[in-house]
Fold this protein.
Amino acid sequence: MSSSPPSKAPVQPAPKVAWWRVHGFLIGLGVAVILGFIIPGPGARHGILQPDIASNAGIALILFFQGLSLALEKIKSGAANWRLHLVIQCFTFVIFPIVGLLLNKVVPLVFPNQPEAVRDGFLYLCVLPSTISTSVVLTAIARGNTAGALFNAAFSNILGVLVTPLLVHLLMQKTGQTGDFGPLLLKITMLTLLPFGLGMALRPSLKPVVEQYKLWMARISNLVILFIVYAAFCESVEEQIWGRFGSTLTAQILGLVVFLFTLMSLLVWGSCKALRLNQEDAVAAYFCSVKKTLAMGVPLAMLIFGDRPDLTLILLPIMFYHPLQLFVNGLLANRWAARA
């Protein structure tokens, strides 16, 4: 008498993650902006929250966490692909800044009343390094070269701690703005390079703790970024910047951000095709080259432009660019994954 084969247990569907958890940081950005308009006093310069002191301490903490989280042992396998590295780093620190300079020259002809701080913000956006986590995740989803993406995203962030302020200084000189770079470089070294290097040095001994609490480290870093954004908007409300420019300026910035993202996406993908990179390398090159980091962009902006009352206008381009790149690149990653 033959026994019937055992029935297979039904496959349980993966649990759904609440939408507010997936988009929590973007929601937090919106809340920080609204609070800046409603309750500007505490977060403004010399307010009871002491934003200058709190922001500086938060910046050092974020960079320390990034140093702790940088798994150098995982990126060695992607270090030999020099053609991929050359494409990504050239777009991040050469072609993007050149496009930023061109925008700085052309935008005043199209929008003559646009404040100078917005043009500075686009220059700043164009010299920022790539993101680490989302670049690697999207590359993995799209069946790209994950090891190469991890190497380049991490390498551009290490370079960006020093190269971004240097490029900002050089580009500001090109546009006729001058400033003493020595004190700024010293401040950046103390608040970014030292904690970043300390985190990298301590990672081998603290690796089990880092892996256990990496989610909380990310949450704390995001809260610091939200506080800096809140403080920037508080200061802009106190200085009555929005009363002078209104919603027209916001629409202009959003349009320019969409134009910049589209232009760079086409340039990156066209260059990958012209250089005949294979599909896996082209996917990694695209996601690492067109993405710009908000996590490092906001703290560095606080260091570079922190004394300016129009810091909010400088931050607006990267704040608009961030959700746009997440939305469009998420769609592209899933589309390329389906093709693969």
In short: The chain has a mean pLDDT of 81. The chain is about 80% helix and 0% strand. The radius of gyration is 21 Å. Residues 146 and 244 are 46 Å apart (CA to CA).
